[in-house]
Amino acid sequence: MKNSEEILTRILNCKGQYISLITKSEVQPAATYKGVRLEKIMSNKYRAGIQFKNLKSVKDAIEAGEREEIKPLRWGKWKKYPYIIEHNNKEYIRLYPSTNSDSGIEVKYKVNGEEVPRSTFNLYLKPSDLNKQGTVPECYMVALDNILEIKD
Question: For 122-144, how does the pLDDT look when each residue is reduced to its tens digit (9 = 90+)?
Fold first, then answer.
């Protein structure tokens, strides 16, 4: 595993390129399961080194009147525009979903540290989180601390 500085340097050197990362995220369980630790370990391909305002989907939606012009960040502040956002003493990297159908996404689900099938993991989720499954955001805000490694 590379340290945070090496990971950050590699990502910042990407200019509109794809990069394969292994990331982790902790998911808040439904209130009924307070105290249960839910984690997702994801291996995925992302696009890095681009600006949100330059995405074709964003430009097309603005032109068609389907969305407003780009506004300032809802939270945090730019530490290094347009790549790094700082919020509550944490750094987040702005990455974009792969437009390539071969993104190679793999997800492992863990409940209290034990790997489980997705169906078991889903039992612990809030209904609002279940409803979000399958939707792909226009961009991801990945905490630098949550990037486990860059896959070469």
Answer: 999 998 887 776 677 788 889 99
Q: How many CB atoms lie within 10 A of CB 36?
A: 14
SS3 of residue 10 by DSSP = helix
Q: C-alpha angle 36/3/105, rounded to 5°? A: 60
Euclidean distance between CA atoms 83 and 92, whole angstroms? 8
Distance CA 41, CA 26 (A): 9
Q: What is the pTM of this model?
A: 0.79
CA angle 78, 76, 11 (to 5 degrees): 50
Q: Which two tokens stand for residue 55?
A: 């995405």
Q: Which domain holds residue 108?
A: 4-151
Structural domains of the chain, count: 1
Strands 114-116 and 84-87: unpaired
Distance separating alpha carbons of residues 34 and 151, to the nearest angstrom: 34
Residue with tokens 């169906």: 119
